[in-house]
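Ligand-bound model needed. flavin-adenine dinucleotide.
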Amino acid sequence: MAYVFQENVFDVIVCGAGHAGCEAALAAARLGASTLLLTGNLDTIAQMSCNPAIGGQAKGQIVREIDALGGEMAVNTDATGIQFRLLNESKGPAVQSPRAQCDKKAYQFRMKHALELQPGLQIFQATVTGLIVEGGKVVGCHSNLDIDFHGRTVVLTTGTFLRGLLHIGTNKNEGGRLGDFSARTLSGSLEASGIELRRFKTGTPARVLGRSLDFSKMEEQKGDAQPTLFAFHDTRDPEAMFHVEHAGQCQQGWAPGSDQLSCWMTYTTERSAEIVRANKHTSAMYSGQIQGVGPRYCPSIEDKFVRFADKSRHLLFLEPEGRHTDEYYINGLSTSMPFHVQLELIHSIPGMENAVVVRPAYAVEYDYAPPTQLWPSLESRIVEGLFCAGQLNGTSGYEEAAGQGAVAGINAAQKVRGGEPLVLRRHEAYIGVLIDDLVTKGTNEPYRMFTSRAEHRLLLNHGSAELRMLPHLRRLPGLVGVGRLERIEHKAERVGHWCAQLESARSHGVTFGDLIRRVGNEPELPAEFLQEDATVRDEVLYRIRYRGYLEREGRIIERLAGLERVKVPADLDFLAIRGLRKECALKLAAQRPATLGQASRISGVSPADLSVLLVLIESGRAGDGTAPTPPQSMPAS
Ligand SMILES: Cc1cc2nc3c(=O)[nH]c(=O)nc-3n(C[C@H](O)[C@H](O)[C@H](O)COP(=O)(O)OP(=O)(O)OC[C@H]3O[C@@H](n4cnc5c(N)ncnc54)[C@H](O)[C@@H]3O)c2cc1C
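Prediction:
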C-alpha cells in the first residue's frame, strides 16, 4: 500500500526537472497554482545533456520569449554564461540570435536554487513509475518510493529517459543519459492509458581534458566584447534580476557577460576520414542496432563523412564546460562508434593528438509521444489533465523544451483555475510556430527550431519578444511581477510614441522615417530619442527601417486567414518558383491544388511555402514564377 504524499491535492504536478520541467513548474507556481516538481535526481536539475550552450539561430529568440513570459532560462544563462556571441551580427536584426556558452554546473545549481526559492513550489526527489488515471482523467502519479502523489493536472517532461537505451558500438546500457537512470515502467503506463509511443535517437560527443589539448594548433574564438545578454534586464527591477544571488548563498563571482572564456576551432583530417570509413560498420547507428530516428541536422561524424562525402574536412569546436572544470566538449564529433575507434579518431585531429578522454561519445534511444496526440494547449487529447512538454513531444534542444515547458505549466495552471489556455499564434512567437508545427503536423525526426520554419520571422526579432507577449502578460497576472509589467507597458508606449514621432517629424524637409530608410544613411536623430533606453531605440529603428516589409507581413497574416478564397492559377509552374522548397514544389506540382486552402492541407507544405505562393499570386507574377526577392538584409525563405 503506497503512502500518499501530503493530504492536499496539488494543482499541478510536474514530472521531470529538465529544461521543460523547470520552466513548467516555475510558470505554474508563479500563476498561483500549488505545484509539486518531482524528479529522479535533484542533483541533475536543468542538466545540459549535450553541449553547454544556450541560444543560437531561432533558439535565441525562443529564450527571449521564455524570458518575456516570466521564465528563468534567460536570466540563468546570463548569470552563468562564460561566453556570449551574437550570431548573424552582419545580417538583418530579424535573424540575429544571441548564443552563450554556460558554466554547466553553475547553470544547474542556480536553476535548482531558483526552484527552491519559488513560493508555491515544492520540489521532491522521486522517480515517477506510472500515472493514476480515473475516468479518462489524470489524478496523480505513482513513484519508485511507494509514495503516491495526487494532483489536478500532471505535466510530463521526461526528456530522453523513457526506456532510454545508451549505445557505444555494440555496448548497451539503460539510461536517459550516461550515468543516469532509465524510466522503464512509465512508458507502459502511458501506453496502457492509450497514448502511442515511438522511438527517436540522439547522440553526444566525447569530453576531453583541456590540459591534454594543444591549443596552439587551433584557432581561438573569443566572445563578443559587448555581450548580448538574453534577459530583458531593462524591465526587471534589480531585486528580481538576480533574485537567486541576492536571496541565496550562491554568488557566482562574476557579473553577466564579464570575464569570458574562449572556444577553439580545429578540423578533422584525411586520417580522420579514413578511420571513420574503415569503422563505420561498428557504429551503433550503422550496424542496425539503433531503431530510433535521429536528427538530420545534427549528424554524427560517421553520418557527415557519408552524407557529405565530397567535403575533405569538418569543423570542430572545443567548448569549455565551465570555469571550475577542465572538461571540454568536442562540438561536431558526435558518434556511436566503439570507444577504441573514438580514441583513434580524436587523436587524428590537430591539437588533440594526446587528448585525454574523460567521457565517451554515445547515442541514446528513447520513447517519445507523437505530439499530434496533444491539443494546442499541450494537453493530451487522450488523458484529460495530462500535459506533455519537451523532448517527450519529439523535439530536440534545451530551448525548444523550455519554451514548451513554460506553455504547458501556464496551461496546467489555467486549467485548474478555469482560465483560457495560452495558445501563441505563429506570427506572435517562435514558441507558437513550434507548438503549432508539433500538434498539427507531428514530426518524423527530432524537431529543432530554425528561422526558416517561421513564415513571419520578420515579426519575431529577438528585441520585440516582450512587446509580443504583452497582451498575454496582461491576462495572466503573476507570470511577471507588477513592476515589470508596468515597465513593459511603458516600453510599448515609448516604442509606439517614437515610431509615430519619427515618421512625422522632419529634418530639412524629409521625415526622420524616410531618412532612416535611406540605405547607408546615418541621420542625426533627435537628442530626446537618443536618451531613450537602447532596447526602445533599437526596436523603433527596426520598425521604421523595415516598415514596408512589416506592414506586408501584417497584410499576409490577415489574408492567410482567408486562404480558401485565394485561387492558385491552373497553369502555375511550381517547379520554377524561387523560394519554394523542392520537396514542396514537387508535391504541389503532383497534386495541383485549386486554392491555397487546399495547398495548406497537403502534407509537407509549410506555412513558409504558403507565404511564398501568396506573395507570388498577389503580386500578379504567378505566370512567370518569379517571387519578389527580399533585400540582402532580409532573411531568405
Ligand atoms: C546524449 C544526448 C545528446 C543530445 N544531443 C543533443 C544535441 O546535439 N542537440 C540538441 O539540441 N539536443 C540534444 N540533446 C537533447 C537535449 O538534451 C534535450 O532536448 C533537452 O535536454 C530536453 O529537455 P527536457 O526537459 O525535455 O528533458 P531532459 O533535459 O532530458 O530532462 C528530463 C528530466 O526528467 C527527469 N525524469 C525523467 N523521467 C523521470 C521519471 N520517470 N520520474 C521523475 N523524473 C524523471 C530526469 O531526471 C530529468 O531531470 C541530447 C540529449 C542527450 C541525452
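Residues 20 and 405 are 4 Å apart (CA to CA).
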